[in-house]
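Appendix B. One record, verbatim.
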Amino acid sequence: MVEVKVERSEIIFRVVYVGSRTATKFANLRGLHDQIRKRGDDVADLSVFFAGGDRVLSFRHYPSVDPIYGLKVGIEVLTVPGEALSPSNEELLLAAADAIVYLDDRSGDTPETKDLDALLSVLEVLGQDPRKMSFVIQCYQETSEERAGLYRGVGSQDWNPKVRRIPATPTGALELLDELESDVLETYRGYEEELAKAGLNSHLKIRDRIYEKIPAARPTQGSPDSQGTGEKGTRLARRARPSAEPSLRAKRPWTAIIIGLAVVLAILAAALVQSL
């Protein structure tokens, strides 16, 4: 899912690589990272972190493209190498994906589609519609129209993923990633034009929702927001949290004292009456 990093004026899109346990997910990401770095792009280090016994491999890079919604574009590439011991880890990545690359490294004339079918079932449970996503099936076998049709036949009739054969080199995989990223950005540039035509230049659209951008005011010294977005930052509109109603004591500090004195005087009067 698209992430807007307010403090850095960035918009981040996520590409997730998936496949069977034998798919070369680790090799693909490592090769992509090396090629992007050699190309001279702004790219962060390759990161590996552990979750529930699984490794999650990722890196973020900033392609040389025009901003979207006035925000710098970043692409985060992620995968769970090997067989996921905890399926929930891969499901979290899929739930956050803006684009998916399915790796089919098997040999043979007929593709094995069982894992692809399982992937589409998981996406349906997660509420992700593959028809509305940039989805590429990457394989190393010769991709005839007949073979591509076997892949597409796994999903619904109007599902039409791209099926690409690439040479077994990181350069070929990088060209495919560039194509996939262009597809994602083209969708959001279309949203940007759509909002501009509607006169909503101060808004941004993420999937099917529209948010308002509000320039962040310059924080005053010592204010709670002084470590926030800064003068040039941007924040999304959100409903203001109502301030707590001041207590009665805070509004009228002498009220409690007067009530207390009245009670004491009433007690003394009652005692005096009884003594008489």
